[in-house]
Amino acid sequence: MTEPIIGIDLGTTNSAVAIIENGTPKIIPIEDQSTMPSCVGLDGQGHLLVGQTALNQLAANPESTVTSIKRQMGKNTTVRLGDRSFSPEEISALILGKLKSAAEDYLKQAVNKAVITVPAYFDEGQRKATTDAAKLAKLEAVRIINEPTAAALAYDAESASNQTLLVYDLGGGTFDVSVVVVEEGVVEVKASHGDTELGGDDFDEELVQHVGTQFKNTHGLEIGDDLKAKRRLKVALERAKCTLSDQPYVKIDEDFLYEGKHLTSEISRELYEQRIASYLEKTLGCMHQAMKDAGITPQQLDKILLVGGSSRTPAVSNLIESTLEIEPSLEVNPDLIVALGAAVQAGTLAGVESQSILVDITPHTFNTSTLNSSFIGPHLICVPIIKRNTPLPCRKAEVFYTVSDRQEQVTVDVSQGESSIPEENTTIGEFVVAGLSPVPSGNPIIIEFALDLNGMLKVTATEKSTGLSKEVAIDTTKQTRTFDLEEARENIAAISGETILSDENAPIDAENDHQAILTESKSLKKRAEALDSSGLDAADVDEIQDLVKRTRSAILEQDWEKVHGLNQNLSDVLFYLED
Ligand code: AMP
After folding, report:
1. Residues 319-358 pLDDT 10s
2. What's the sign of the alpha-carbon dihedral 257, 261, 264, 270?
3. Cβ of 200 below 6 Å from ligand 1
4. Main-chain phi, psi angles of 155, to 5 degrees
5. What is the per-residue pLDDT across 164-189, written as a single tens digit (0 to 9) for each?
6. For the CA of 244, the nearest atom of ligand 1
7. 245: CA distance to ligand 1 center in Å?
8. Known catalytic residue: 147?
9. Residue 169 catalytic?
10. What angle do CA 204, 207, 213 make, to 5 degrees?
11. Is the Cβ–Cβ distance between 305 and 151 less than 8 Å?
């Protein structure tokens, strides 16, 4: 048996350890969790606490708890723990020691070697400090590799095909973005950029400020300098922030937070995203700089990998996608990707064969539809709730609003597909929630999708103000059978009462024609929406609205000849107006 080499992601906020098992990288659980907080403390009796137990006492015992030690690595400094001082290497060694013993318990043998990851921007001093911390923990750091390299390794880096990847790593305390090129299995970081003072901690602080102001307005009390209350608030708000990645609202209840007063608050994702918008803009600046330094354009990118817990914030992937027009890959858990990549490297060094990671993901996007208003009139668009390639199981929710005053019911429809146009997706369910409160329009309704490993989708719609709720279960696997052209032809023939067309090519050509007509309709509709309606005659606006409406009906009726004719009319009108 070869000597095991483990892969370690020694993170600012969390750490993880992985190994190649049966040819695949696997996370080793630490106290039943896949990651461990990078937190060290001493309890009231002076006993050492590492990981979750140390984090648990952070709020109550901040003087005897150390977090984010990675930020101090390579510095000639010490941190206090109770009445003693420790170097950053020593604190890191305690974290590494716990990861090592978790691996030893799991593998049931001694572990003496590890591949450890560090940020690409770490200088020699910081790398040496990491190696020294490993030595202190009785681990030989057989290789120190860059985190973006590890992320790339976790994704099929063995493949011979050349790929250019952008690794966007937004953690708790730091942000870095790298352009990585994989050629013939060799991974090279072409350029890195970042901000060592930007991460999820800043987002927590934004929420602390927001809730602190609310508390002051309600009770006239400043939580400000009370370290214990502030830490407690930070812990609660960090949890709330994570919930907002999957839910549109979160409630915070902290009894007796400060001077006997309770804190009760609710935060919406919308507000949270506004508060962190300037930080996310900053990350985009770094991203453009890294691409410029690497001499590449967005079009040359093959993939965007998200790394770090904070990259789970939906606003992050939405912003990247709208800026670069590439959907970031979500297949591998961003908290674990670096440790998994370190294990791939460790496996190679130990002479163990490994393959790319297998994950269960949903191959389709699941949407609900909502009314969208533009000058061509209100029309339905699909809004993705669970995006394709999301790892399973998953649970995501969004908020929608009623459009009419005293609206009594809403219809929730569920579709599967990648388009924003309802007709182009497959409807897989529809239900009505009746008995809503008689309130003005804008009544928030939360739609939640929960998809399990077996492809069972549970859809829940809840009126936020009352909790009135309805749930339906949909077996999505029934919708995804492979398309059988012959069967479909017979089917069409059966319902249209015609015999199957004898010309073999005719249906396929017709199908292609329909696609072309539909594509043209879409592009015309976009052109119509892009027109500046303020400079148009009322008659022209009416004509465009009428043509778009009639086109939509013709598409629903699948009357392609009619759609084609309407396209030509609309194209003529637009040509004249755009001129
Ligand atoms: P890392 O340094 O990669 O371990 O990332 C830790 C940061 O990710 C912390 O600020 C966490 O609060 C944040 N984080 C973890 N999970 C989520 C989530 N689901 N949504 C948003 N932030 C998260």
Report:
1. 999 999 999 987 788 999 999 999 999 998 898 876 655 4
2. negative
3. yes
4. -95, 100
5. 999 999 998 889 899 988 877 677 78
6. 20
7. 10
8. yes
9. yes
10. 140
11. yes
